[in-house]
Amino acid sequence: MSPPLAAVTGATGFLGQHLVRALGAAGWRVRLLARRDPTSPFWEGQEPQVVPGDLSDPAALARLCDGAERIFHTAGLIGGSPAQMRLVNVEGARRLAQAAQRAAPDAQTVLVSSLAAREPQLSPYAASKRAGEDAMREVLGERLTVARPPVIYGPGDRETLRVFQAAATSPVLPLLHRDARVALVHVEDAARQIVALASGARGRIITLCDARPEGYAWRELMQTAASALNRSPGFVRIPAAALYALASAQGIGNGWRHGKVTITFGKVRELTHLDWGVRPDERTPRAPEPIYDLLAGFKQTVCWYRKRGWL
User: Fold this and answer.
1) Residue 280: strand, helix, or coil
2) Cβ 110 vs Cβ 197: under 8 Å
3) Alpha helices of the chain — where are they, by DSSP H?
4) What pLDDT is stored for residue 82 in this prediction?
5) Which end of the chain has less Cβ packing within 10 Å, N or C?
6) CA 211 to chain centre
């Protein structure tokens, strides 16, 4: 008897690469959607089946879903214009749900959304993630499980790399509001929790987290990042007004030059939101115990970055 088949979108992304590895370790055959033949440093010993295409290609989505027992949707856009994010995060999610409904009517689908979807009013990104959840649920109903990860870090991530680069070189690290709390999860723990959701939690929204669901204060986060690099920098409190001023200045400057805006008002609202902790009713008691606490996870991530020459 052949192993069960899992279909995966976004498999070449940061989380997607680790999810493919976790599915293989759990005994799944993996079929993934990709524009070109993918490779990953995390797939040693694995040879996933590849369906050429993307979320705009209904025929490719049908081939991806055909015969799958579980479907994992991790593809998404974290930046760009609101229209671009809606095209990928909402319309792409809807097209995948429609393909799953037709080609795999008995399959359970796991959508990897974001904790930001809990607060859709904060930013176009958060709104697009919530709308993507709603779009898939309209089609799939109880056959959809939503996983909302908080900040994910770990080997292969280029977003949190910037935090470690600052911790490695800067004599002073920034802190935001002293009352703010930010939940995190190591990417390997996130992938294992997502795989576990394939066996239960039908129709639910589950938030992923490490062993500190209530989250971390900014000082603890920055201090732990510095400790992972054996450094002891100073800290400076950055008021929200300074971030809004930076977003305004960058938006005006890049608007003149038609450049890419890296910090927007929406991103500032996300960064300065006080409650990114995970509430008890948002978790599942059946989630695998996390392997990494924050310091161990940061140290393992730093080691990977250094071996790859990223840090």
Assistant:
1) helix
2) yes
3) 14-25, 58-65, 82-86, 93-103, 124-140, 161-169, 187-197, 218-228, 240-257, 265-272, 294-308
4) 93
5) N
6) 18
Summarised one tens digit per residue, pLDDT across range 247-264 is 787 655 454 444 454 688
Q: What residues contact residue 249 under an 8 Å CB cut-off, 6+ apart?
A: none
CATH 3.40.50.720 fits 5-152+185-210+275-290, yes or no: yes
Q: What single letter denotes the amino acid at residue 279?
A: R
Structure tokens at 172: 């002073």
**Distance separating alpha carbons of residues 70 and 82, to the nearest angstrom:** 30
pLDDT per position as a tens digit, 52-78: 999 999 999 999 999 999 999 999 999
pLDDT on residue 58 = 95
- Would you call 230 exposed, middle or buried from its count of C-beta atoms within 10 A (0-12, 13-18, 19+)? exposed
What are 222's two structure tokens? Answer: 């920055």
